[in-house]
Design brief:
This protein is an all-alpha fold. It contains five helices and no strands. The termini are far apart.
Length: about 110
């Protein structure tokens, strides 16, 4: 991937610039930047960069969620606690036994077998 494409992606995430501003900064026309967005290598690098950016921010995000446990609003505290528990693997689940064991089905109200 070209350094210009990489820089364009990084500016999209980090600088919060418009597409025109990014194109100007990288030194390409805005339509070229639009075409790049359909290139497989561009999409691949964008996904990689997004994952890395999110990974770098996860500690701060977790700290924010933990801080919300002390919010004034009961609803905010509840949602923060629920989200933290869900992400830690304590999400409620509905389990249904579909194995056929211990299931008695009566049809027509009779026990004729």
């Amino acid at each position: 991937m070209s350094p210009k494409k990489q820089k364009a992606i990084e500016l999209m995430f980090d600088a919060k610039l418009s597409q025109k501003d990014i194109a100007d900064e990288v030194g390409v026309h805005e339509t070229t930047l639009s075409k790049w967005k359909h290139d497989d290598d561009y999409k691949e690098y964008m996904e990689k960069y997004a994952r890395e950016t999110i990974s770098r921010s996860s500690g701060k995000a977790l700290g924010t969620m933990i801080g919300l446990l002390n919010a004034r609003s009961e609803l905010v505290r509840f949602n923060a606690a629920k989200d933290l528990l869900d992400r830690a693997g304590f999400a409620p689940t509905d389990k249904v036994d579909l194995s056929g064991n211990d299931i008695n089905i009566k049809i027509g109200g009779t026990d004729d077998g």
